[in-house]
Model the fold of this input.
Amino acid sequence: MSTTVHRHPHVYDANVRSPAIDGAPPVAPNLVRAPEVQKIHANFLETLVFKGLSSPLALVLVVIQGRYLHTSGRGSFVLVVLSVTLLTRLLGQLGYAVTNRMQRRGVDLRKLVQAAFAIGVVLGIAGTVAIVAWGATTGGVGVTVAVVAALALVPNVVWQSVCGILLGLGRVRLWNVIQTLPPVLTLLGVLVFVVGLDQGVLGAVLAWTLAHAVTAAFALVATRKIWVPLPLRDLLELFNRRLAELALTMGAVQVVNLLSYRIELIVLQRSRGISEVGVYSIAVQTAEVLWLIGGALTAAVTPIAVADDEHQAAGVISRAAVKALAYTAVVAVGVGIAAPYIFGPLLGDAFSGASTPLRLLLPGIVLYAPVTTLVVYLSVRRGRPRLSLAVSVIGLVVTLVASLVLIPRYGASGAGAASPVGYAVGAGLAWLFFVRLAGNPDIPQTTGKPGQTAEARL
Done:
């Protein structure tokens, strides 16, 4: 039997509207909104609890890698994982593309999910080959490490696609469980392969790959009711071009975002060497932990933002974005004060220089904290991923220019100063697009032509 998605009765429909009803205010708006506000708060707190469990484990993983892989080994691990992560960001937005399509009437959820998996597997295999080829020609990585890392690509795409679908369905708890598994399992694997068996970088990458494979298997089993049976013989026939185009545009946003976050690592590696990358990567990973606050808020509001009417969705997103900015700023102050006392004692003197880049990164981290929430509105709610892509591309270009100017002279500190410039520009543009669309709710979505049925759009 197929699973058909029925929209929430308050979902905004650009084609079917009732002026008499739309023009009348609710009898008791506070009472109408109270359950949704409570749901947002509950989802936010639950997500913070899960992140509060997984984030310390991720930091412990960083400490172990710093101690056992040293600066050069840590740099190699970061580069090879980055290669997989780039392609995962490109392909892993399939779930959010499904969520965008779920807003249409009469959509067959099972077929949508199966199409997403078909796209992910087909493109993921091609990406796996590309990663191996890249590793074979990159110093400090090599074919063996690249092959092991590349095997994580398809599992990554699968479980991240599932997570995007779960948010659309409002299943935040299962989303949290799946999101928590990779760092937990990676840490366990590192303890076995790196600490116990002394396998160095290869062991660390193997632990990371196995963690994502197990996570993907769990995600598939937990959501089997919405995709089983999957007709493997007809895999290529399931490939949906329109869904792929939407997902790849959303994915391009994530890839450019990641490049924007990491472009200074590439410039730093070429200018100062792999050891300097290892030191700076510690500062970056520590700073980006602060984005968990905005990420938790985004996860909490996404189910409501895609189900509410247009005016309410914009209000939910704007309030969440402002809270992300404020909460992240408060935590950033504490991290900035504690920075000089963190890295040396935990990781050794070789990493003590990470405190200055970290402090320089923090203002940009704070300014960019709301962008994840705003992108949900631009890309998922309104189906305008090209606006999100513009935010990312401009931020990337600004960061690259600043990096080329500052890194050759100041090294890791120059990288830490370059990133906030790009973050500030990108955040400002995201707010500009959001205000424009939220102020003009009748601007059509770009996911389909007016009057098309859901089946025609697919």
Q: What stands out?
A: The longest helix spans residues 29-91. The chain has one domain: 34-442. The radius of gyration is 22 Å. The longest strand covers residues 4-5.
